[in-house]
Structures are given as structure tokens and as C-alpha cells.
Fold:
Amino acid sequence: MALDDIYDSILGFDAERTAELVRAELAAGTEVRAILDEALIAAMDEVGVQFSEGVLFVPEMLMAAMAMKGGLEILRPHLSASEAKPAGVVVIGTVKGDMHDIGKSLVGMMLEGSGFQVIDLGIDVPAERFLAAAEAHQADIVGLSALLTTTMPAMQATVTRLRERNAGPRIIVGGAPVNQDFAERIGADGYGEDAPGAVALARRLVADR
Structure:
């Protein structure tokens, strides 16, 4: 089955082949949603399972996410044209004062691979920019990342600012110095220990809305 080939190309970390196969499926008239759900999302779900089981590690997970992204870039204009609704809208970024990008980017790609629309604000993002983006995009979730202990206060300040101005989006946090206790203490709605965990958390939060 051709969709299985896309699935296998993602698990084989082959971005070029993934893009080629997605193009071929679109040309053959395969439904856009089927390509997304049965190939891209299914493959990234399996990546999450294999990571949790210790079969895959962060480098492999990142390569799989890049392969998925290659296919998603081909699919994206067709998703818009077909009016396929995303699983939810997530604004994500690394908090003010922190320049680390890899973990946040991996979470963003995994979320995209799970059907979410992701607005990635990048690094060193002040609270007001998170707030403006959440309002502009009517975000369901705002995701905050920090790798440095020195920027944890900026994460807390961002959560506080978001709560003051916009009660709509759920807030999730993650990064090396962050844990569940800290997330609860600063008023976040959840903590993602790793990229698959962040995706699972985002799915639960959107389902609960």
C-alpha cells in the first residue's frame, strides 16, 4: 500500500523519498486527510512509541521529524485547500533570555506531524510576543521552552502575563530544568517531559476543551 511506503520512509528518516511519495499520492488522487492521518501522523505516533520504549533516541526522533516535515510541506497547501481542520493551534517558543532551539523545534515538528497547526516564534521570545501571537492566532495551546535555569523566572513571568490577559489557551512548559512541580507552581496546565510527551499532553488538553 502506498501510504505504508510514506510511513516507512519517515521511519527510515528519508525526507526526500517522503516528499516524493506524498507528491505521487496527491497526483494519484489520494485524499489529503488520508495521507496526513494514515501516513504522517501514524508514523510520528510510532516514533513516539519507539522513543518511549528506548528503541529510538533524540537524534533518530529528530531525523524522523525532519522526514515527516518534508512530506508535510508538500501536503500543507492541499490541507488548506481541502479545509481540513487542524487538531488545534499551538503557539510555541523559547522564553526570553534563552537561545536554545533544538528541543523546542523538535516538539513543534512532532506537533505538526500530529496534525496541529504550529506557530513557532523562535528563541528569546518576550511574554508580550507570546500573548500577541496567542490572541492573533486564537491559540488553543501556548508552549513555553527553557533550557537554562536562569530563564525559568522568564517562563514564570510569561505564564503570569498570559493568565492576566488571556484565559483562553492552555499553557504547557518543557525543557531540561523544568519538571511537573515547577509547572504546577507557576500555574501552567501541564509539563511535557519530552517531545512525544508534549504531543500526548497537547492532545489531552485539546480533547478536554
Observations:
- The domain at 89-208 is CATH 3.40.50.280 (Rossmann fold).
- The first strand starts at residue 89 and ends at 94.
